[in-house]
Hints:
The structure holds two protein chains of two kinds.
Chain A: H1 2-14, H2 24-45, H3 50-54, H4 59-82, H5 94-101, H6 103-115, H7 119-122, H8 125-152, H9 158-178, H10 186-212
Chain B: H1 5-16, H2 20-38, H3 47-60, H4 72-88, H5 109-115, H6 117-121, H7 126-137, H8 142-149, H9 153-169
Helix pairs in contact in B: 1-2, 2-3, 2-4, 3-4, 7-8, 7-9, 8-9
Amino acid sequence: MRNDNQEFIDGLLNDLRPTRPLTLQRGLMIASGSAALAISVMALFIGIQPALITGSLDPLFLLASGLFLMLGIAASVTVIGMSRPHVGTTHSGWIWAVAMAALLPLTAVVLGFAKEGNEFFQSQPAQGMNCVINGSMLGLIVGGALTMWLRRGAPTSSHQAGLLTGIAAGSLGIFAYSLHCPYDDIFHIGLWHSMAVVVSAIAGRIVVPTLIRW
Amino acid sequence: MIADDATMARLMALSQTGDRQAYATLLAECQKWLKRFFARKIVQQQIDDLVQDTLLSLHRKLASYDPDRPFQPWLAAIARYRWVDHLRKVYKADEAAFDEGFAAENSEPAIVARISLDRMFSYLPPAQARAIELVKIEGLTIAEASYACGQSESLVKVNIHRGLKKLATMIEKD
C-alpha cells in the first residue's frame, strides 16, 4: 500500500505543469470578450438597426436590452464563480436578475389579457422566430466560451452551472441580436426575446452538464 | 500536526507555478488533512481510495484554486464533491472501524466546523441522514438499515436517494 501510494504521489508530481489560476478577472475578460465577439458577428453579418446609428432610440428598447445585458452579466459572473469551488460561497444572486428580466414577458401577458386584442400577431411571430433562432445562435459564442471555462474549473453543481451557462448565453445572445431587431413592441420583446433566453437555458441545462462533469 | 491554511495556500500558489518540491509537501499535507476529513464519514477501508481520488481531482483542477483566497475551503469543496460521488456508488463493507475525530485534532477548529462533512449532514432531515449513515457509511444492507432505524425498506431507499440528491446541491454550503 505504501509503495502504491508513493507511486501515485510520484505520478502526480511528474505530471505537474505550471498552470494559470482561474481568477475572476480572467473569467470576466473571457465572458465580456465572447459577448463582444457575438456583437461583432451580428454587426458584420446581420447589421445594426438604423435607429441605433441615428440615435432615435425607443425607451422600451433601452430598458429591455439593459435587462437582458444585466441578466447575462449576472449569470456569467455566477458561472465564473462556480468554476472556482469554495465552501461558504452561495450562488444565488442571479435569481434576482432572472426575476427582473421576467418582468418583460409578465408585462406582455398582463397587457395581453387586459387588451383582449390580437397581441400575438402584434408580436410579429415570423420575425420573432428569427429573434429566437439568431439570438440563440449568437449565444452559442458566449455559451461555448463559458463551457470551456467551466471544463477547466471544478463546478460542484453541474446542473446549475449548465442552466446558468444557458441563461448567460441566451441573454447576451439576444442582447446582441436586439441591436439589429427593429421591433420595440412589448409583446415582441416580452414573448420572443425572452423565449431565446428560455430556449438557451433549457439547452444549457441539458447539454452542458455532460461536458463539465469531473 | 497538519500545516495551517496560510502555509497550504502558499504551497499551492508555488505548485501552480510548477514547483515540484512545494507540490510534494502540499500533497503530503493534503493527504493527512483528507484522511482526517473523511474519518467517520466513510468505511475505514475505503478512505485511502477516496483520498487518492480527491488528490487526483485536486491535481486535475489545480487551476480552479485562486491564490487570493483561503485554501482549505477550496480543498473541502473538492473533497465534499468526491465524497458525495463516492456515496452514490453502492458498496457493502464488512466492518466499519473509525479513525480519530477530525475536528478534535485540527489546529483551526472554527474553519473545520464550517467545512466539515457533519455540517452538510446537519442540513438533511434526520431520516435521510440516518439512512445514508447506516447504508452508505456504516455499510449495512437496506434490510439491516430498515431494521435499525425503523423505516420500511422502500423508505430507506427513497431517503438515501433524496438525501444524496440534496447533498449534491450543497457542496459549497457553509
